Structures are given as structure tokens and as C-alpha cells.
Amino acid sequence: MEEKSDQLYNQYFVEIDILNQFEAIFKYANEGIVISDDQSKILKINPSGLKTFGYEHENEVLGQKIEILIPKRFQERHVGHREKYMESPHARSMGLQFDLYALKKGGDEFPVEVSLSPFKNSQGSFVICFIIDISTRKKAEENEKNYRKELEKEVEERTLILKEAIQKLEKTKNELDNSLKREQELNSMKTKFISIASHEFRTPLSTILSSLSLMEKYNELNETEKRNKHNDRIKKSIKNLTDILNDILSVNKIEEGKVIVNPENFNIQNFINELIQDLQGLLKPGQKINFKGAETPETVVFQDPKLLRHILINLLTNAIKFSKEDSPIDISLRLEPNEIYLEVKDYGLGIPKADHEKLFTRFFRSSNVENIQGTGLGLSIVLQYVNYLKGTIKFSSEVGKGSVFNVNLPKNLKSSKI
User: Fold this and answer.
1) Residue 163 has pLDDT above 80, yes or no
2) Residue ranges of the Histidine kinase domain (predicted)?
């Protein structure tokens, strides 16, 4: 009997000791601790819990529903959660997939971490809530997040600056490369021009000098026919020199951007007839320019007659130059509501197929016209002028059968400075 009494006595003191330890933990824990019953009424709250929630005395919260510690916007939802939890209570951490917020006495919300531990005794079922204010951690995380955003923004800005710098360097490099290429092209052009010009100028100048000397002699001998023949040779040589100079001036205008397009209304059919008359003196014996006019009665267009004249004169003089005596040259005009179609056709030397690709290149001359005078500038200028008039130019050619050049221009052109 005495032994049983000692056992009960010892068990009592063990339970007292355990209770004392629990009380010590409850009282001095850094975490907030709230104990509620199965109806979620607060039965006990430790000092850290009071401090966490901004209360001075526990009687301010004891007997209240746990929702007093939860922001109003979450209270209704929380009731459903806790009722479901009490159906099958178990130890768990809350807020693993979302942020949790608690409510201070003064109405301020703050982020928390919450752990639940259910237990039972002879008095009923209870839940211990462990609550940690994580405001400092959240602030640190937010600061870190903001810092990362700022860092990412700064990296992005610097990357953009670097990208812009690289683009500028690339642009500068391309400009330098283009300038170098342009300079090389200009040097090449100068070399070609000096070579061609020296040859092309020498021939007509020699002809003029020799013809002038012979004319003096024929004057003394009173041989009018021979004198007139040499007079024509002088005029033709001067015309060749003028053509060369005009080509050079045209290239210079194009290079310096001084070509001005001045469209005006004019009768294109009359314009071509007059141009053909002006070229009669260049025709070889037996050559004739045949003009097939537009079938429409309205032949007024709004284009630049000066540039169009240069285009047609170049194409027609080439046809004359590269065709034999007694060979016809055909020019035709077709007008559509918005388009002008011109065709210049000859039956002369033709252009070798291997030369087609380079035909509109400056200073390029077909391999089969080496003995015929020319600078190789004409067709390149024609192409530029056609572009200025917002048109296109195409050609077809076969050696020994001649060439056909087709020019397509808008019927109405807006003026512009190139």
C-alpha cells in the first residue's frame, strides 16, 4: 500500500514538472502561441503572441474566435477552412502555396507563418497555433526582389547601351567600308575616265586639226566639194566631243545629287517627232528612223521632257552608231491610262549574251564594239534617269540581229529633287 502511494506521489510530481516545463516554454517562447478549442475559441495566448498581435492583456482575446487575429477580407474563407480542418485535425504548416496575413489590434496587417498541432485530453480537443511574424524577412525578400529588378533593369539598360554602341560601331564600320569602296570605285572610275577620255578626245581633235589644215589647202585650190567634206568632218568631231562632255556632266550631276526632276505637260508624240528631226544629221547613208505613234488621240503626258529627251537621244544614237548603212531604226510609242511604253529597235551589231549583265555599268563597253567610238557612260546614265522618272528599262539583244530597248514610265509624275 505504501509502495503504491509512493508511485502516485512520484507520478504527480512528474506531471507537475512537465506542466512547469510547458508553462516555461509557453511563457518564454519567441514564437507566438495560441491555444484554441474545437470551436476555435481562444483559450490561451502567450506573451510573444500578445506582443505579436499588439495586445497588452490576454483577456482582450480570450474567449474570442480565432478570426479576431485574421484580416477581415480572409475571415469568411477561414471559417470554412478551420471547420474542414477540425474534421480531421493533424499537424501541419499553413500557407505553403500562398502568403498568410494576420491582424494586429490596431488594424494593421502583417505576414506570418503558422503551424498547427492538434491534441486531446480529458477536457476535449484543442489546437496549438505557432505564429511567427515574418515582416522583417518579407521586407528583406522584397528588398532583394527590388534589388534584383533594379539589377536586371540596369543590366538590361547597359545591354541596350552596349547593343546601341555595337550598332553604331557596325554602322561606322559599314560607312567606312562603303567610303573605302566608294573611294576605290572613284579611283577606278578616274583611271578608266582618263584612259577613255584621252583616247576619245584625241581622235576628234586630231580629225579637226587635220581637216583644218586640208581646208586651208583646198581654199587655195578652190576645191569647194573637198572643203565642205572636211567641214562636215569637223562638225561631226565637235558633236562627238560635245556628247562626251555631256555624258561627263551628267555623271557629275548624278554623283553630286544635283539632278532635278521637273515634270510638265507636253505632247509626247510631237516631242518624239521633233527629236527624230534633230537626229537626221547623225544618220548614216541609207539609215532611216521609223516612228510608230500612239493609237490613242490623247498624247499629252506629265513627265520631265529634258530627262526623257536625254534617254531617247542616247538610245537612238546608239542604234545609229551600232547599225550599218541602209539599216532602219524603229521607235514606237504606246500609251495606257497610267503608263507610257517606248521601244527603240535596231538591226545592227547586237550585244553578246556574256555582256548583258554588265551593260548598264559605267564605262562598260560590249566586247564587239571596241572599234566604235564611245565612253561606256551612256546606258548607265539612261538607267539613272529612268529611275529618276520612276520607270523601268529592259532590253533584249542577239549578236548580228540587233537590239530592242523597252522603257516604261508613269504617265503622270510628281516633281522631286534627287
Assistant:
1) yes
2) 196-413
